[in-house]
Amino acid sequence: DAKTTQPPSMDCAEGRAANLPCNHSTISGNEYVYWYRQIHSQGPQYIIHGLKNNETNEMASLIITEDRKSSTLILPHATLRDTAVYYCIVGHDYKLSFGAGTTVTVRA
Amino acid sequence: GAGVSQTPSNKVTEKGKYVELRCDPISGHTALYWYRQSLGQGPEFLIYFQGTGAADDSGLPNDRFFAVRPEGSVSTLKIQRTERGDSAVYLCASGGRDTEAFFGQGTRLTVV
Asked: What's the rounded Cα separation, in Å, for the pair A86 and B102?
């Protein structure tokens, strides 16, 4: 599976948009980009995934560059409950290879 | 239940003992996964079941680890001769065809 690179941590202000970057320069043509998050002491929670096109759901938006070598997860209005470790994963089918993720801290 | 259920939530065992960790997936989900998460790290893939069979067990660290899913629903992860390095949170997830993986809360295993 291709690997991803994410910043280890980032802060954002409550109510503002949080933009989480992810580099995946070795992604192959049939691999999806998945985002999960893990709130302290809980199991990972699915957020969104995409292949080529940008995607949006009730939680977030996913912007994938045209060359698919990077993507950005956007939380449109961050709340304190969005404080978590966010994992960007590339792959397909069942085998998710989690890295260290980005620890996002939302501050009031 | 509505989500993936894992029992026990915490397990403390002595080095050398045998342990079993149980996972009840979401009803109807054919895919089941086990992951392991050590402190400060992301989850690490262990094994994947599609139905009753282990489709990929390449993540199991050694032959002390074994998992079963005899009826295609509940799964048990079995660890023999536990070692202190086995201490971690063991996560189970399930999914349907073409759906994302839903994770349970995990079992925290501590080997003393």
From this structure: 16
Distant-in-sequence contacts of B44-51, Cβ < 8 A, 24+ apart: B44/A98, B45/A95, B45/A96, B45/A97, B46/B77, B47/B77, B48/A94, B48/A95, B49/B75, B50/A94
CB B92 within 8 A of CB B32: yes
pLDDT at B25: 96
In chain A, which ranges are E strands? 9-13, 18-23, 32-38, 45-50, 55-56, 61-64, 70-75, 84-91, 102-107
Quick check: B100 and A34 CB within 8 A? yes
Q: How far is A50 from chain B (nearest CA, A)?
A: 12
| A2 pLDDT higher than 70 | no
Does the CB of B91 have a partner CB in chain A at under 8 Å? Answer: yes
Instruction: State whether A44 and B43 contact (CB < 8 Å).
Output: yes
Summarised one tens digit per residue, pLDDT across range B77-107 is 999 999 999 999 999 999 987 678 899 999 9
Distance CA B34, CA B94 (A): 9
Q: Which of A47, A58, A55 is nearest to A86 (CA)?
A: A47
End-to-end Cα distance, chain B: 32
